[in-house]
């Protein structure tokens, strides 16, 4: 299947951070977060990047788990303590690729296909559950100010 076939078959729509997605799960149970907000216990989505697509730097207020399904390896870049951390999701374990990764709450992160061809299909699960109120897309100037040692990386993913 091509990326466009998968987008059609799974009924994916454009995501504000880049790529395509569809929510597949939202728990019926809710909880109160430390800041007094009500959130579903967990949520999950399909997420697909193809070719030159990228997930621009963003952060959310919950932990996020990424699970690789198929396609090309996907690189996730996290900015923590002023240092970028790179995680490669994929199925070539001998090459250091991982089938899943955890993005801690409130961490700036982005993703792309290093080869910039084909596609990667993953799932993302968020706990406490995702709410767009908790989603922050990075602004280039502010992120450059926060991480002045990485201007090229910030420019590439904002």
TrEMBL record:
Name of the protein in question: Cupin domain-containing protein
Species lineage: Bacteria, Pseudomonadati, Bacteroidota, Cytophagia, Cytophagales
InterPro entries tied to this protein: Cupin_DUF985 (IPR009327), RmlC-like_jellyroll (IPR014710), RmlC_Cupin_sf (IPR011051), YML079W-like (IPR039935)
PANTHER family to which the protein is assigned, alphabetical: DUF985 DOMAIN-CONTAINING PROTEIN, RMLC-LIKE JELLY ROLL FOLD PROTEIN
Domain of life, source organism: Bacteria
Residues in DUF985 domain copies: 4-138
